[in-house]
Amino acid sequence: MHRxxxxxxxxxxxxxxxxxxxxxxxxxLGGLGLTGTAQAASAPSPVRPPTGTAPAPAxxxxxxxxxxxxxxxxxxxxxxxxxxxxxxxAMVKGIADLFVEKGLKDAGYQYVNLDDCWAKTERxxxxxxxxxxxxxxxxxxxxxxxxxxxxxxxxxxSSAGTRTCDPVGMPGGLGxxxxxxxxxxxxxxxxxxxxxxxxQDVDFMLRYTTMRDALKAASSKTGRPILYSLCExxxxxxxxxxxxxxxxxxxxxxxxxxxxxxxxxxxxxxPLAKYAGPGHWNDPDMLEVGNGGMTATEYRTHFSMWSIMxxxxxxxxxxxxxxxxxxxxxxxxxVIAVDQDRLGKQGVVVTSxxxxxxxxxxxxxxxxxxxxxxxxxxxxxxxxxxxxxxLPAADGYRVRDLWLKTTGHSAGxxxxxxxxxxxxxxxxxxxRRWAQLPPVxxxxxxxxxxxxxxxxxxxxxxxxDLGRTPARDVSVKLTGPAGWQVRATSPSGTPSLPxxxxxxxxxxxxxxxxxxxxxxxxTLTTTYRGASGQRLTTTAPAGVRVAVAPxxxxxxxxxxxxxxxxxxxxxxEKDRSNGESAAGDGKPLTVGxxxxxxxxxxxxxxxxxxxxxxxxxxxTARVGLDDESGTRGTVAFEVWADGRKAxxxxxxxxxxxxxxxxxxVGGAQTVRLVVTDGGDGVQYDHADWGDAxxxx
Length: 696
Prior knowledge:
Strand content: 25-35%
Strand order of the largest sheet: 7-6-5-4-3-2-1-8
């Protein structure tokens, strides 16, 4: 797991792979034989296989049956506290209290899990783990008993190495598996997260199966089964073997509370659908919902996509500080039902063209959960069909929006205009009583146009009746931010909109003078009546991007306001390197020892977009990996003029001095500066645009 409290390694790097072998403990071939450790006397002595081989997993899972038949739900403190002092007994008990008080227990959340730093840094004279007496003065069993008294379950953390992942760290389980497992069971532990740090290059299969067998032995002795969560970051493709070892396995590195991190992890986990099922789940890491690094729209996407991926739902925010909005997201029982569906299927990608994703999950009752997910930075219409998501032919389909809590019917098309970074989550099934439901209307206004403050811009809204019955008394209204002038330029209502037909309205929108550059949301509100005469209202996002063209002459990019920016780690920095995740925490831009006073500090994958309004002719910069990356990382730089790639560098590493990049951007309305990974993952990809300038 990534430990942002330490600065010895750049961000986003699972530490076990870098730290393994750095400690002085010795692993002897032919057995664990760990210096300074002792395996429990009652445990069988594991034998290390020859180099390059691993023990074949058993034909059937060897942990107690009946656990994790649906994806585990609960809480883990790491994302909100790390190893700070606030992680203690009072916090854990407070979370258990809130599970009951806020209805989370009734919604399905069970496990209250402790992550790293719960123990002292050394074992006792008998080789036993010792709870930190400051954090947990009454011991771990007392905390577990408190959690159990609430009707909940209790989880703990260790690592398949000599020490855990935090730089201070506590003793890991390597060489102590049977003793630790017995201790966990005696304390009342129901769930073990087993990390991968400081693993001394001991064979991964040996490390993880030894703890599996130790947990089984402890369960047989105490009667307490323990859910086994493998946390080796996807390093050894656990989806291919984890079913016979644990109940769930991490498929990726650690999540961070950023849009880029959540999106990247989602993309890594989605292709693994065939490996998930009851008792064995892909784990794309804990939830960040409520931690503050993403918008409410992005958090709903996070929760929606984890649910459609049948992922474990482990709350990662401090619920003692959570807002009502956070509880509303985490408590949506209709979304949770998608995750917890007893069929146990993970959703599969139907299409993802242009960042417009359709993901379909088969459910036990024959219906489909369908996520319409918008990866892009502006509203997008996303459409599919009942047939494409796997449903049989029917005259009509019941369509339930799981966030808006509305139900209508469709003739077969499933579509919505989805806000930037948003997700519409539907539950769809054939229904012979479809005619009793109102038609679903799809409303949108296309991609957000560009304009300058004080200049009117034209938009066209489209309302489509997706059903078989007409929508009556249809009325459309477009509203903008305070001070904007918005008016219809054609009729905004119709007495009847037949099934399958469109109704269009033209609009003029003007941002007031002095409006700052940026993307601005407008709202389309459509009211109509269904067959039974009930009045219905739907809303859809629309947008306008306001920009200011650069002045004549040469301008540094860091002195201009971008239209939009996205960055792989923290914000895009002006005149400083990317640094860590906080704004302004970088250093002077430095590539190969050359320092640049002006420029942009980014981290792959990154995009920064500028409005040029057809007034600029050229872009130039000196680019490369910042020296803070050390000798690691590979990136490629690209300059895009509207939809045309105007220049690129190819893959660069830290052996290269700053490279000059120059692009002809004449006539372009926008210029995008893009940094991509060089093909080895985004670790250490701190990329600098030194002396970046537009000539206009």
